[in-house]
Amino acid sequence: xxxxxxxxxxxxxxxxxxxxxxxxxxxxKCIKTGMQYYNGFLEEFLYNGDVxxxxxxxxxxxxxxKSKVYKATDFEYNEDLYDDLxxxxxxxxxxxxxPSVWKKEMVSKLFQTRKTISIMISETxxxxxxxxx
Length: 133
Prior knowledge:
It is a single chain. The protein is 55% helix and 5% strand. It has helices spanning 3-10, 13-16, 23-48, 85-90, 104-132; strands spanning 61-63, 91-93. It has a two-stranded antiparallel ribbon. One of its GO terms (cellular component) is microtubule.
């Protein structure tokens, strides 16, 4: 169990509603702390288009360009999400690692948003290169 799987496990209703126990409070603090890292990770991905803070593939978006173990073809291909070859060869969204405190659809939309930003940046650079050469 890694990353979002652990947060989801700690966030299960049967875990959080243990009566007269310190466990729910401890789990809630663990979830809060873990989610701070997830929020920072998501900001890094959205703003910078990078995931340097996840060298061990614990978060839900993996940078395959830095992986010696995985490649894009190892994962399920979804035409709706992955239609830009450069982006899909670099990043993959692992839905099982999305913490249960977030909605999977929301994270998918954020992933798509970053992809759109990456495409726009790439096309702008190509246009700039054509203008100056």
